[in-house]
Amino acid sequence: MKNLYTDSYRRHCGIIALLILAVCSSSPAQVNSNKDYDQIKTILRQYQATIEKLDTTGSAQLFASESKIFEQGGDEGSFLHYAAHHLAPELGEFESFKFSNYKVNVTIDLPYAFAEETYNYTIKLKKIRFRFIASERLHPF
User: Fold this and answer.
1) What distance in Å separates the CA atoms of residue 90 and residue 77, rounded to the nearest whole number?
2) What is the model's pTM?
3) How far from the centroid of its chain's Cα atoms is residue 94's Cα?
4) Are 6 and 121 in contact (CB under 8 A)?
């Protein structure tokens, strides 16, 4: 069995609104400038680079201090809490994490901005561990 996991992922990022709130112009006349869209896309690329280098150091600066992270319907708390208790330990299990076929659609509606990202990712695990569950089937975790 290979220790490679490939999947595609599509997410609607309401939390990105808080992440990018600081970069949006406050003047309605400037709200849809290419500069605003480019700044938002730059922040998203910086976060992607954080994931690909498997290191969350410095990534909190990409998030507003009052931001909250929701993953699979669950409230993970602030980004600092999420990074320390969820993301960093998870990334520690990976040998590599690579994004491909990335597309983003940004909508600015002050005071918020929303991003819809579509991409594929490939994860190579450091090692595969198995456990038995009640069904007595072998499941990776």
Assistant:
1) 16
2) 0.70
3) 16
4) yes
Tens-place pLDDT, residues 13-53 = 334 444 544 444 445 555 567 888 999 999 999 999 999 99
pLDDT score of 133 more than 70? no
Residue indicated by tokens 């690579």? 98
State whether CATH 3.10.450 applies to domain 4-140. yes
For 80, residues 6+ apart whose C-beta sits below 8 A from its C-beta are 60
pLDDT, tens only, 87-103: 999 999 999 999 999 99
User: SS3 of 83, please?
Assistant: helix
Amino acid at 14: G
Tokens of 127: 């090692």
β-strand pairing of 130-132 with 112-125: unpaired
Burial of 8 (0-12, 13-18, 19+ CB in 10 A): exposed
